[in-house]
Amino acid sequence: MKKTSENTTETAIEYEPLLITVIIRILGFPFFLGLAIVYSAILLVKYIFCYVRYGGEAISYTRKNQRRMIEDIYQELVNMNQNRSSL
Q: What is the pLDDT of residue 9?
C-alpha cells in the first residue's frame, strides 16, 4: 500500500506543471487571437487597396519592390513602335 500512495504523489507532482502551463496558455489565447485578427484585417485592407490600385497585378505590388507594371511596358513598346514608324 505504501507504493500506491507514493505513485499517487508522484503523479500529482507531474501534472502540476502541465496544469499551470495549460492555464497560462488559455489565459494568453485571447490576446494572441486579438493580435492575429488585427493583423489579418490590416493585411486585407492592404490587399484591397493594391487590387483597386493595380488591378490584376495586386499580388506583385503588395511588397515594397518597385516592379514595372504591364502598362509601363506597353507604353514603352508603343513609344518604340512610334520611333520606328517615324524613321
A: 62
